[in-house]
Amino acid sequence: xxxxxxxxxxxxxxxxxxxxxxxxxxxxxxxxxxxxxxxxxxxxxxxxxxxxxxxxxxxxxxxxxxxxxxxxxxxxxxxxxxxxxxxxxxxxxxxxxxxxxxxxxxxxxxxxxxxxxxxxxxxxxxxxxxxxxxxxxxxxxxxxxxxxxxxxxxxxxxxxxxxxxxxxxxxxxxxxxxxxxxxxxxxxxxxxxxxxxxxxxxxxxxxxxxxxxxxxxxxxxxxxxxxxxxxxxxxxxxxxxxxxxxxxxxxxxxxxxxxxxxxxxxxxxxxxxxxxxxxxxxxxxxxxxxxxxxxxxxxxxxxxxxxxxxxxxxxxxxxxxxxxxxxxxxxxxxxxxxxxxxxxxxxxxxxxxxxxxxxxxxxxxxxxxxxxxxxxxxxxxxxxxxxxxxxxxxxxxxxxxxxxxxxxxxxxxxxxxxxxxxxxxxxxxxxxxxxxxxxxxxxxxxxxxxxxxxxxxxx
Length: 459
Prior knowledge:
The protein has helices spanning 2-22, 89-114, 118-151, 156-184, 189-214, 349-352, 393-405, 431-443, and strands spanning 41-50, 56-58, 64-69, 76-77, 82-86, 217-219, 224-229, 236-237, 246-249, 255-261, 272-277, 286-299, 314-322, 334-343, 367-368, 380-390, 410-413, 421-428, 450-456. By secondary structure, it is of the alpha+beta class.
């Protein structure tokens, strides 16, 4: 009986061991993969998707009632396209009045240059002839009276009266001659200048009124897509209490404006490879690169639903440009950006916007260089310009920062076995583009840059 019990206990123990072994978690065998693993993230930040720039809210520079809305949501528009119009009838009346004053001033100038009419000149000539005849008659009358006065046959009063008549006749003749000269004279330079000034003032009034009327037109400041029409015909608009009429954005590229916490700003680098995720796209990763870092801190604006989130910390705006294949992300979407330790040079805007990378020809005189880095990096081919080579990294970083402040895409690289840190600008798609930037660098005071073919990684 005891033996049966022992056998039973042993059987139960063996059964338990078998059950435990059967339900053990299976460890999958490690399989070597040829795919490169995603680099580890060094920091994460919240952000929102935007276009080439932040979304633009458009208003009007004039008060009035919305007369026309010429676009709709989702419509593509070009720069300068008329989007909406404010009713400004009073300004149209001002333009008509100003143009009428221009016409009046121009006609007055024409009359001034033309001078007196022919009839007026003829009348002046006739008056001169009549005054001359009267003066001649008065002169003959005076000679007769003068002879009689010498003989004592007339009184002095009569003689002096005849003399006064002669003086009046001469004065009238001289006045008639002056009036005839005035009728035939050309306008004075100062009179022409005054007429020109009056025309210019009237024309400026037309321009001012026209510009004021143009403020009633809402035009697209950039080429892009109308995201939302926020007004209707008949609504009033006031510049004292402005509100957006439309929102516009350039959707040709997708960028993420990420807000990096003040504790992590030392980990941000220009050219950092980044991975963007969104709750609306589970399981999807969107690749991008840090292309711009704000020079100033600001208050946090992207908030999450996490109640433990710190909202009183300042953040640094970092722009991450996504690959062209990531156009499906809607503008304004809240996303999470994970920035990795991989840093590559930021290509010029013209190269970042190209649909596909192109092969770059290398000039025969260019010197090929290779750089190495303790960190993994994506290699890029192209042309670069070497601005300087320094033994101390801090000096190279300072020069690169100065170049970036002047809008040159500068970065620091190092070759294997080379003790110098080289400050390079680029890459550029061809030798012509590189030489154009080399001239700009020289004009900016950075000396003569060395042109090289480019296959490098930064460190």
